[in-house]
Specification:
heterodimer; A: 185 residues; six-stranded mixed sheet; 4 helices; globular; B: alpha+beta; Rieske Iron-sulfur Protein
Chain lengths: 185, 418
């Protein structure tokens, strides 16, 4: 391939890693921003502490939990994802963890995660779009593992409380071989 | 210990007993790469991953990457991604479509059949023979119903001889597709595992573990897998020779006599698929295919067809492996394909309800072998009840160690060869 054609390939590769550009809110509401960050920190704490019921209760009835593989904006209806759970499969995931016989979580991973770079997204509908990064330290029987992800949420106010209607977790190394990830990411 | 024991395969591999060092000795691993991965037939990829001319995708043979290319004539080539000049990679993309590959170091350019087309500043080479400076190709490539196998050995048994009776399982898989063709292009999950590849290989047809390793998911879902692997199960394990083994649940499904029961569903829930099947095969044959379902077969050394998904086992080192897994799709059957994908995504990969726990077992096994005693693993379950089926193939109960014993028998024959 000549140099010109080669150059034409490059932007696609970049898009695979970074995804479609997100539309960030121009003038974020500071009170809303505070509520959203508090929600994200609480969610992170439930995950780190394996508070499964509390975490599950954060979901709306139509929640979708998506962890793509091999890129950022893949089509989960056509391509393989690490996790692509509808609400009933989220419930199944939690029921399995709660048996105490989910061997890859027995003993559970010891976790601490940092949520950062929180930005509100431009929104046309009632849901609140949020983008953030997540960095997670895991230690378990195998050893220590670092995980890093770019996340996108759609949060919704249900009876005055924020709930998750959609959570997408893009592991930055989701195109590489990765170790078992059976804690709540 | 390692050098003393290394050549004594009859000591390391005894009937129903294998030495722990076989799973962690790096010298043994190096020898496996030469005598198994770079000699016997290994599964590389599927034609549906490169549907168009000039498509390519990075696959592997053992620890070594290979480019699977559909070249400009439409034929499948397996190219080694190493510039003959200084060894640089001529392609760092995972997949794509291109007619040629240019090495970024000194701009040598190769056609996608491996031929060296030109190099920069050619006067410096004084007419060197370009035909001797192409990309290396995997010497033997053979395709069976879309499954691309390769051997790094210049000669040896044919793919047909290697597969032997196990070819029935590939036919069985393809016959479940109304077009007779599979599609494996949904993308692979890559599950990294700190364990020797043979723990994965042996687990695939081990029907003893599901009741315990997977009890968590069986107890909270309506999965019907559990009943195939109980003490009362009528499913059997079978050895095809050459290290190929299967769990054959057809006796159980034929007892149930319900189409699509193998998939945990009914014909009524998949009307489009059933209509397609009837139209292709006729109602009687279609009904039998849909009762028998998909195979559960481990084609030695690296292709595992687990009913609705395929795994490709890749060894990285004595203590590190990768499981590549994707959903099987039936060409032009969107109705069932969505369910095949959804069920696969739930079950397998690093976050899967099943495979996260299997993989946890591999890693614990691996660490266990650092403990020095006992020296041997014990694989004698069901030795007393092995029997021959009507085709003369060795079969056992679905929970027996027969697959492991047969894998090791073949392994030993490969490792003893010079």
């Amino acid at each position: 391939m000549n140099a010109k054609a080669e150059a034409a390939v490059q932007p696609d590769i970049l898009k695979e890693w970074t995804g479609k550009g997100l539309a960030y809110a121009a003038n974020p509401d500071h009170d809303l921003y505070r509520q959203v960050t508090q929600f994200l920190y609480r969610e992170a704490r439930f995950q780190d502490a394996h508070d499964y019921d509390e975490w599950e209760a954060l979901w709306t009835d139509d929640g979708v939990y998506w962890v793509p593989a091999n890129g950022t904006d893949t089509d989960p209806e056509q391509q393989m994802s690490l996790i692509y759970d509808n609400r009933s499969r989220i419930a199944l995931r939690i029921r399995q963890l709660k048996t105490g016989r989910r061997h890859s979580q027995t003993p559970p991973s010891q976790l601490a995660r940092i949520i950062g770079n929180v930005e509100l997204l431009h929104s046309n509908g009632p849901d609140i779009g949020v983008a953030c990064n997540s960095q997670i330290f895991e230690t378990n029987l195998r050893g220590d593992t670092m995980w890093a992800a770019r996340c996108v949420y759609q949060l919704r106010r249900v009876q005055d409380e924020l709930k998750m209607a959609y959570k997408k977790v893009v592991l930055v190394n989701n195109n590489k071989p990765i170790y078992t990830i059976s804690f709540l990411i | 210990m390692e050098t003393n024991h290394r050549k004594q395969w009859d000591d390391l591999i005894q009937p129903g007993m294998v030495h722990g060092s076989l799973y962690h000795d790096e010298m043994i691993f190096k020898e496996e790469v030469e005598k198994i991965w770079f000699r016997t037939w290994v599964y590389v990829g599927h034609e549906s991953e490169v549907p168009n001319k000039n498509d390519f995708v990075t696959k592997s043979i053992g620890p070594m990457p290979v480019l699977m290319v559909r070249n400009r004539r439409g034929d499948i080539d397996l190219l080694l991604n190493r510039c003959p000049h200084r060894g640089n990679a001529v392609c760092v993309q995972e997949k794509g479509n291109r007619t040629s590959f240019t090495c970024p170091y000194h701009s040598w350019t190769f056609s996608n059949d491996g031929t060296l087309m030109n190099y920069a500043f050619p006067e410096g080479y004084n007419g060197a023979d370009k035909s001797k400076l192409g990309l290396s190709k995997v010497p033997r490539v053979a395709i069976y119903r879309g499954f691309v196998f390769a051997s790094m050995a210049l000669d040896g048994p044919t793919l047909g001889e290697h597969l032997g009776g196990a070819v029935r399982t590939l036919d069985q898989a393809c016959d479940n597709s109304p077009t007779g063709e599979l599609n494996l292009s949904a993308g692979f999950l890559r599950h990294r595992t700190r364990a020797n590849w043979k723990f994965i290989l042996e687990n695939e047809c081990d029907g003893y573990h599901p009741a315990f390793v997977h009890s968590s998911i069986f107890s909270v879902s309506d999965s019907a897998i559990g009943s195939l692997y109980g003490a009362d199960a009528v499913a059997v394990t079978r050895s095809f020779g050459n290290g190929h083994t299967e769990v054959d649940p057809r006796p159980e499904f034929r007892r149930r006599n319900e189409p699509m029961s193998w998939f945990g569903t009914t014909a009524e829930k998949l009307p489009d698929y059933v209509a397609q099947m009837n139209s292709t095969y006729g109602e009687q044959r279609a009904r039998q295919i849909m009762i028998d379902g998909m195979p559960h077969v481990m084609i030695f050394p690296n292709l595992f067809i687990a009913e609705i998904q395929i795994f490709v086992i890749q060894p990285v080192s004595a203590t590190e492996s990768i499981q590549h897994v994707t959903a099987i799709q039936f060409k032009d059957s969107p109705e069932i394909n969505r369910r095949l994908r959804q069920q696969t995504m739930g079950s397998v990969g690093p976050a899967g309800f099943l495979l996260a726990d299997d993989t946890e077992m591999y890693e614990r096994n691996q660490r266990g072998l650092e403990i020095r005693s006992p020296e041997y693993l014990y694989l004698k379950r069901g030795e007393h009840r092995e029997r021959r089926d009507e085709d003369g193939l060795l079969v056992g109960h679905s929970t027996d160690d027969l697959p492991s014993r047969e894998i090791w028998k073949h392994y030993r024959s490969l490792m003893e060869a010079h």
